[in-house]
Amino acid sequence: MHGDELSGFRVETSKGTDSPILRLQSVGKRFPGVVALRDVSFEIARGSGHVLLGENGAGKSTLINLLGGVLQPDDGSIWFDGAPYRPASPLEAFKAGIRVVHQELNLLSNLSVAENLLFEQLPSRRGLVNFREMNRRAAELLAEVGLDVAPTTEVGRLGVAQMQLVEIAKALCHESKLLVLDEPTATLTVREVDRLFAILHRLKAKGVTTLYISHRLEEISEVGDQVTVLRDGQHVTTRPLAGLGIPDIVQLMVGRTITGQGAIGTAAPTGGEALGVTDLKLAADSPAISFSVGQGEIVGIAGLVGSGRTEMVRALFGADPKAAGTIRIEGREVEIVSPKDAVSHGLCLATEDRKGQGLLLEMSCAENMTITDLTRVSRRGLLQRGQEDDFSKRLVRELRVKTPSIHQAVRTFSGGNQQKVVIAKWLFRGPKALIFDEPTRGIDVGAKAEIYELLGNLASDGKGILVVSSDLPELMAICHRILVFSKGRIAGEVSRAEFEEHRILSLAYQEYSRVRAG
Amino acid sequence: MSERVERVEARKAHVKWDNLLHISMREAGVTVALVLIVLFFSATAPYFATTGNFLKIFVQIAINTVLAAGMTFVILTGGIDLSVGSVLALCTVVGATIMTDERLSAGISITLAFVACLGTGAICGAINGWVCEKWKLPSFIVTLGMLNIASGVARVVSNNSTITGLPQSFVEFGNMIFFGVFPSIFVIAVGVVLIGWFILRFTVFGRFIFAIGTNEEAVRLSGHNPSAIKIAAFTISGLTAGIAAMVYLLRLNVGSPIAGIGYELNAIAAVIIGGTSLSGGKGSIIGTLVGACILQVLSTGLQLLGAEDNVKPIVIGTVIVLAVILDTYRNKFLRAMESRRSDG
């Protein structure tokens, strides 16, 4: 239905100029230890709806940040509207005519909707804000996106979907030539999504180009006519969307067909259940999650960023509240309402945010390792520093932490060594089951291999291991089984013999496809 | 071959020396500053370098030192306690009321007053901590409330009057001087500092204080309950306010609802000058003692130099800010040293 309309608009929007609105030539961007984008070249046709796709970590966000002036490229050049484009700040990008609606909302929650909408250009006279004019214009914009709230409402009182619409309205209020939308529909209901598409069609009729990023593969055909696929920071293809089915697209995103490599998780699990979860619900109306991890087993959790993996493990560990569910450790049902409960029952969590939540950055390697169980290095409340030193020296040796001294502050450590300290601190506590959330994020290749080896050793020691990771090849290399999360529920389970990237990714997208179909 | 061994040995020694330097840097910097200031006034101000003057300084720093010792615990966890001045006032009133009760013998009344003073302070502190943690409120606000509440309760208890007529033996103890230069109340203050130093340096509780100030969420996710530790830190701050109230009674021999006004700011200043970070996690109680000394030495020295009363606060204010500026440079220096160590 929309397809017909689309072609109609396309005819209208050709403005007699065939030069592309945006052209990237050999664009590269590196971060310490990671190449985010490498030699990316493609063009976006003027007035088109362009869709950008890629797996987690493919480089989509980096590319958007380059366009939005948040980051600057290390190599290559970008041409926008016929001129070299190299914005030093988001403001410059905005002035050049590129408007980015980021996935994370950038609203000022204490200000009103109207103030947020017109923040860059508040209607004013001699430095005084003209509130009547401001609210009038805001009301127009809100009507355009179909958001039924008063312009004077405080943004903090809105729901996430409403905030998303405010963000979109904000992008509309300025004449931009290129509108970049990063996952705009992630929080919207079907009705709101339809309205968003209607707006996008209207913008298209006005000649505005859109660059659209979404996980919901089935909706992209409604907004785009061209698609660009990125994989591992590299450009895979730019081609017309017409005729491409969802399976084709997934194949383009995955590229290779990787199966389990037998690196680590080959030894068969040894014993009974280490960690069991039955009907875990984060909120009263969220899907129930049940799974189990055997002793000596490494179970992976795959899924898109934002599919609820981190939320699930945090609730499981007692770091965040949960609505319902029973948890078993080594077959015994346990009550976990705080991390303290979890740890005392032998369940540990190495968080996604190592520096912010895992480590005492300013404190020493030894102090970080023993913090999980100071009773082991104290007598009647008094610290026994000799014991502490002995224990931490042993852990440093066992885990091959590279440091000149156990008294060195962990802030100075590399990512790999910091992760080893996190593992050491949980080993010191003597856990029965361990959860790792993104255990190798920001860690260089060599250290990654060492971390995998450590996880393998832990499993051979009979501990149950749950690994959350966005790096599919990583999970396929080290896990016995992979649970695939899709929109807060377990969409499926894949055993090692059946490991195939394409299959796992299809499961990860499963629930997102279902929403639009229903 | 032997050359390499030598290099390794030299490197080991270097690491050791660096560690030692690192551990003591925090205290060393302020101590050097204190010595320089003392030398400066000894050379320039008449009567400064006399036993009588030092005796006077020791008497004057006792109260602030005790308050600042407790304050150090709270600031190390990343909080602040604005209520200590008026909690002190409340405790002096409670203590003096008990001691002047004629139905009690001197010995019993002093013992009772001691317990009541410390108990009142500890309860006020515990309330501060509990309210902060229960409702996750900033300690700045909660203790600001306690500042007013304790002050009001002190007025009610004392009927808005100063309470005099403490037992003779109590007053005499307050006037005692050891070795000709150490007044009894200074000895108490140093005792409090040493106990605090021991707790922070050698106990599991002390380790938690630093860990919470460094990263409270990491402590929670390591399987601990930071709230209990933080409530304990506030209780200690209240307890030292109670001890400081006893010191106040020993020194001035009156309980007063308007005692202690502004003391909290002096205590915070001593902690900050002593090198403890306001955001928590870094600092030392020995530094706090030195910080309290610097404040008082400056005040006394300037007075002896004949500076106007109005000039004193200007100089002291400048020193407080200067101390924090120097602290940022010291941290930069230490970090540079550390990265050199881990790279090399």
Automatic annotation (TrEMBL), chain A:
<dbReference type="InterPro" id="IPR027417">
    <property type="entry name" value="P-loop_NTPase"/>
</dbReference>
<keyword id="KW-0547">Nucleotide-binding</keyword>
<keyword id="KW-0762">Sugar transport</keyword>
<dbReference type="InterPro" id="IPR017871">
    <property type="entry name" value="ABC_transporter-like_CS"/>
</dbReference>
<keyword id="KW-0067">ATP-binding</keyword>
<feature type="domain" description="ABC transporter">
    <location>
        <begin position="270"/>
        <end position="512"/>
    </location>
</feature>
<protein>
    <submittedName>
        <fullName>Ribose/galactose/methyl galactoside import ATP-binding protein 1</fullName>
    </submittedName>
</protein>
<dbReference type="Pfam" id="PF00005">
    <property type="entry name" value="ABC_tran"/>
</dbReference>
<keyword id="KW-0677">Repeat</keyword>
<dbReference type="InterPro" id="IPR003439">
    <property type="entry name" value="ABC_transporter-like_ATP-bd"/>
</dbReference>
<dbReference type="GO" id="GO:0005524">
    <property type="term" value="F:ATP binding"/>
</dbReference>
<dbReference type="InterPro" id="IPR003593">
    <property type="entry name" value="AAA+_ATPase"/>
</dbReference>
<dbReference type="InterPro" id="IPR050107">
    <property type="entry name" value="ABC_carbohydrate_import_ATPase"/>
</dbReference>
<keyword id="KW-1003">Cell membrane</keyword>
<keyword id="KW-0472">Membrane</keyword>
<comment type="function">
    <text>Involved in beta-(1--&gt;2)glucan export. Transmembrane domains (TMD) form a pore in the inner membrane and the ATP-binding domain (NBD) is responsible for energy generation.</text>
</comment>
<feature type="domain" description="ABC transporter">
    <location>
        <begin position="22"/>
        <end position="257"/>
    </location>
</feature>
<keyword id="KW-0813">Transport</keyword>
<comment type="similarity">
    <text>Belongs to the ABC transporter superfamily.</text>
</comment>
<keyword id="KW-1278">Translocase</keyword>
Automatic annotation (TrEMBL), chain B:
<dbReference type="Pfam" id="PF02653">
    <property type="entry name" value="BPD_transp_2"/>
</dbReference>
<feature type="transmembrane region" description="Helical">
    <location>
        <begin position="231"/>
        <end position="250"/>
    </location>
</feature>
<keyword id="KW-0812">Transmembrane</keyword>
<keyword id="KW-1003">Cell membrane</keyword>
<feature type="transmembrane region" description="Helical">
    <location>
        <begin position="139"/>
        <end position="157"/>
    </location>
</feature>
<dbReference type="InterPro" id="IPR001851">
    <property type="entry name" value="ABC_transp_permease"/>
</dbReference>
<feature type="transmembrane region" description="Helical">
    <location>
        <begin position="54"/>
        <end position="75"/>
    </location>
</feature>
<feature type="transmembrane region" description="Helical">
    <location>
        <begin position="256"/>
        <end position="278"/>
    </location>
</feature>
<feature type="transmembrane region" description="Helical">
    <location>
        <begin position="177"/>
        <end position="200"/>
    </location>
</feature>
<keyword id="KW-1133">Transmembrane helix</keyword>
<feature type="transmembrane region" description="Helical">
    <location>
        <begin position="28"/>
        <end position="48"/>
    </location>
</feature>
<keyword id="KW-0472">Membrane</keyword>
<protein>
    <submittedName>
        <fullName>Ribose ABC transporter permease</fullName>
    </submittedName>
</protein>
<feature type="transmembrane region" description="Helical">
    <location>
        <begin position="285"/>
        <end position="305"/>
    </location>
</feature>
<feature type="transmembrane region" description="Helical">
    <location>
        <begin position="106"/>
        <end position="127"/>
    </location>
</feature>
<feature type="transmembrane region" description="Helical">
    <location>
        <begin position="311"/>
        <end position="329"/>
    </location>
</feature>
<feature type="transmembrane region" description="Helical">
    <location>
        <begin position="82"/>
        <end position="100"/>
    </location>
</feature>
